[in-house]
Amino acid sequence: LAGTGPEEPRCTVERADASLTYSLFLQRFAFSRPVILGGVTDNSAFRALCTREKLLAAFGPFPVRLSTANTYSYRKVDVPFQEYVEHLLKPQDPARLGSDTLYFFGDNNFTEWGPLFQHYVPPPFRIPGTSPAYSWGCAGSGSGVPFHWHGPGFSEVIFGRKRWFLYPPDQTPHFHPNETTLAWLQHTYPTLPPAQRPLECTLRPGEVLYFPDRWWHATLNLDTSVFISTFLG
Asked: Is the pTM of this model over 0.85?
């Protein structure tokens, strides 16, 4: 379902296409700055399996683990996937705190969801000394994860649009850990001087964002979205 969330006026994250070589990826981006990759994977087969109808038919009764959408709390709630899709997958309430907002991303049972992940084509690049792990999710328009950081990874949009905000490790963003990304965008973002604004861009289906180790990032789903990340641990 299309949402009403605003896109950024311009994308400030560098873009690269399928001509980017592995050696150039390591030299220019892997350890220094994010990049949006276009045309590096073809996940049309995976996308066909991620429609609402296909997912409910394959995984409806399976339990999924939801997390609160705030930075420093890790409350988990288990519900059947069908219940999440039919009752909780809705637009974000701007007035609701992150600790009261449930978000489905990352806590996947790889025994149950493995058959789906087998059809995913990951980005062709890796960081030496790391191994990939998938995290898949779906969420309503206006939802997202507020600022946090962890190791490097890739994130691909399967359905919908996802807006990203990123700061380098040495530039801690100003945010309240229990405020949703939508509330931050409405209240804090407009007050930021241009020099203090994050790198940002909106990803569309088939585009992949790479973020380096320890980069701060927050996400905002502009539509009801399906997405998958490849974390490099």
From this structure: yes
